[in-house]
Design brief:
eight-stranded mixed β-sheet; binds adenosine monophosphate; 38% helix; alpha/beta; five-stranded mixed β-sheet; single chain
């Protein structure tokens, strides 16, 4: 294959990269914008996740895991059609599912086929085709399967019946099989002599649909809240950790598969979900969380984007302010000015920024309730001494936010300096077909959090306490026994192989940074005491088996 393609000129024949790579036996790399997280870096990820879980526990948050793909419509409705995420960045595909015919066919085979002696599927009769021909006592029945009752199917069946009779001289019986709710209607439509068969369809059959890899997790969690009627539990405090997917231009700190640590507080208004105390609690939690993972010099930027009525007024004011200047702005802004002027604030084009600086800010349009809510969030933050700066232009790139919106930035990150963002989304549940359920949440970019860690690898990676060197034939068995005993004492133990010379074992132990090396040779096994050498000091002692763990734990 390889030579053949080469001889014929690959460039001309192969169109896609993957065809070319296959023909050349080339190495396959991870897709653009994705990356492998390898040890020792994964230790930082584990450190972050373990710390974050501890913090969530202290605030009584509980884990929720939702699918990494959802119906496309969830994001279109939940995040907003006009947002960059939905309009440009989603990984969406059309899932073929089983197809309606397959669903009907399976149901019919399971529920009706047994009555007949023999059945044939998809039988061609002249230029027509019928779903099933079923025989009983050699008498054929032509069966059509349908989702809906309509008169067209009856005409077709009669045509099939005539055709069959002309060809084979037998007049077949006719049957239509339909989902149960359609059966009554069909009985009214059908003339006598056509049998109507009932089909019970599985509730959640796999129809073709558009699916999307989740670009964020709030919509999925609110979907789960609605689907499982979680309002019955009162106030829900969730967190989740997992991958998100956006087709963005990759750069440092920006990936197509990235990880978010999410938290959401959601419940009926009666559970206190609307209270500014929840906003402040979330922000204080974040301050604690960043401190605990060792991220200092963060900045909390805070704003209130008001409620939908304020936003309508603000959008109108923006439209007016944009009208005389919008033709000097980028194409995206020109579109946004018409469809959703608020999104102009998402613009990153440098030339547009001076114009954006002159636009009105939402703070001028907040109603009394939103203003009071915002003031109270700030009062609590002052009381718990969480510093913030107000940024009246912070609107966040998603449509669902109401009232409090925030971002934490970090100086060390360069252009992609937002470590996390979040806000309140009081109308999201209704937009997704649920009951009113005020909520507030955030998403931390875990990739960026890990990038801004100052902790040293030493402090988060647990190196082996001891490296066991089996010495000579038959010693792998003995070494395995010792390792098992030591690991029961929560020691980190690694093992060599009986084929290694002692020198090689020492090198391996050194390389992995083990504290001790333990020699397991025939003599040691005989006396049940082992040579234990401290690698840094070179000090070596012989320790009876029963005291090994104790001894290694000491230093
Ligand atoms: P957003 O949902 O856009 O508010 O994003 C929340 C956080 O996720 C941001 O503050 C980033 O830290 C992180 N984030 C968003 N997009 C990406 C990306 N493409 N790559 C890495 N991190 C991202």
């Amino acid at each position: 294959m390889h030579e053949k393609f080469c001889a014929q000129g690959i460039g001309e024949r192969l169109t896609t990269n993957s065809e070319r790579r296959t023909a050349n036996n080339e190495m396959i790399k991870s897709p653009r914008g994705t990356r492998d997280l390898l040890p020792p870096d994964t230790a930082f990820w584990n450190f972050v996740e373990a710390t974050v879980r501890e913090v969530f526990r202290a605030y009584n948050f509980h884990e929720i895991r939702t699918p990494i793909f959802e119906s496309t419509e969830l994001f279109a409705r939940g995040v907003g059609e006009e947002t960059d995420i939905v309009s440009k960045e989603m990984f969406t595909w059309f899932d073929r599912g089983e197809g309606p015919e397959a669903v009907l066919g399976k149901a019919w085979a399971a529920q009706h086929a047994r009555k007949y002696e023999r059945i044939e599927a998809d039988v061609r009769i002249g230029r027509l085709e019928v779903d099933f021909v079923a025989y009983l006592n050699n008498q054929p029945t032509l069966v059509e399967l349908k989702f809906r009752a309509d008169a067209g199917v009856l005409l077709r069946l009669q045509e099939l019946q005539d055709e069959w009779q002309q060809r084979w001289g037998v007049r077949p019986n006719l049957a239509v099989a339909l989902p149960i709710p359609e059966v009554n209607l069909m009985q009214e439509l059908a003339p006598g002599g056509i049998e109507i068969q009932r089909l019970a369809l599985p509730e959640d059959y796999d129809l073709p649909q558009s699916l999307t890899l989740r670009p964020e997790n709030t919509a999925g969690i609110v979907r789960a809240y609605i689907e499982h009627k979680l309002w019955e539990r009162g106030l829900n405090k969730f967190f989740s950790i997992g991958p998100m997917f956006r087709r963005e231009r990759p750069q440092k700190g920006r990936y197509r598969q990235f990880y978010q640590i999410d938290a959401e507080v959601i419940g009926p208004a009666s559970s206190g979900s609307q209270s500014p105390a929840r906003d402040a609690e979330i922000l204080e939690l974040l301050a604690t969380l960043l401190d605990r993972v060792g991220i200092t010099n963060w900045t909390l930027e805070l704003n209130s984007v008001g409620c939908p009525a304020d936003r309508a007024k603000f959008n109108e004011a923006l439209r007016q302010a944009l009208a005389p200047v919008v033709d000097k702005m980028c194409a995206d802004c020109q579109r946004r000015a018409v469809t959703n002027p608020l999104r102009v604030f998402d613009c990153k084009v440098p030339e547009d920024q001076p114009i954006i600086d002159t636009l009105p800010t939402i703070s001028q349009f907040l109603d009394e309730a939103c203003r009071t809510h915002y003031e109270e969030v700030k009062n609590i933050l002052n009381a718990v001494q969480v510093p913030y700066v107000e940024n009246p232009r912070l609107v966040r790139g998603l449509d669902y936010y109401t009232r409090t919106a925030f971002e934490f930035t970090h100086g060390g990150l360069g252009a992609q300096n937002a470590i996390l963002g979040g806000g309140r989304y009081d109308g999201l549940s209704e937009a997704l077909g649920g009951p009113p359920a005020p909520g507030i949440g955030f998403a931390i970019g875990e990739d960026r959090l890990v990038l801004s860690l100052t902790a040293s690898a030493e402090s988060v990676i647990r190196k082996p306490d001891v490296y066991i060197a089996p010495l000579g034939a038959g010693m792998n068995r003995e070494a395995a026994r010792v390792a098992r005993e030591l690991r029961r004492h929560d020691l980190v133990v690694d093992l060599g192989d009986e084929s290694f010379r002692l020198k090689k074992s020492f090198e391996a132990a050194d390389k992995m940074g083990a504290r001790y090396i333990l020699i397991v040779g025939e003599n040691e096994v005989k006396v049940d005491a082992f040579a234990l050498k401290h690698l840094a000091s070179g000090e070596q002692v012989t320790v009876p088996r029963a005291q090994l763990a104790q001894r290694i734990l000491q230093k």
